[in-house]
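New to this. Look over this protein:
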Amino acid sequence: MKVIHAQAQDLPDEVTLQMIVSIAEVVDDLQCHDALSFFVNLWINRLSESVPSQMCDELVQWIFVASVFGLDEKFKQATRVAIMRSTGPIDILGLPMRLDIVDKIEQQRQNLLEDLIAQLNAVLDNLCSDRSCRVLACRFMTLGALTQQMKNTNLHSPRPARPFRNQSLSSALEAVRHFDSPSLYLPSEDISHYSFDQFDSSFQGSKEDVWVLQKDPLSSSRRKKKDRGLFEAEDDEQLNKTPKRLTVHCCRLQAHLEPVIDLLEAKVFTLDIGGP
């Protein structure tokens, strides 16, 4: 009110975020943005508080202040955090915030979570085909690892759907970022940098590793007879033969998931729900 009545000399040099929120409520009610915008920008630049990186009351207050005073960069920064961290429609704390802002944040959260689920299921479909890898044991292992970890994090069955209550995009992406598959070792006669002697006591694989000690019995290239039944075993000598060397297989689950994570994070970074 001192600004409106030309008493700017009595204004404080610094104010708190709570005070700016209170000023924003008055400005929004009286529609006197032009009279206060200069001073508000000065105060905000001197604030010790920055836009939070977590969902909290201060984040909602920043969204409100930025929307009232047209602070584009602060508005984008705060709404992106809300889209990433919220688990449902944000609580506006009784502030006179525009409802379209709340709706757009929630809509973007749901859109991105739906996109993530679709992308993960596309990876599952890809792992079911030989497009991902020609080694059947690798596809089985990677497909199983992804399915189990999606189920453990409630991203698989039943398939999550809108409105994704109590699910934030950040927690879902963090879970996917930690999905992993065991290292796979296959029989090999090739003595290379990635070959290991399984009888060498100096070589110890992780307890989570998968060691395939026999070549794929379902591979057509290994079949001696074209008319052999699917479940008919090969001769005992071939099945019981233990390879002398194992080669680490280069495929890993994260190689399929990193593009998904990068795509979603890029979408969040470029999000713009409209001007404040």
About this structure: Confidence is low (pLDDT under 50) at residues 190-204, 220-225. The longest strand covers residues 184-187. The two ends are 24 Å apart (CA to CA).
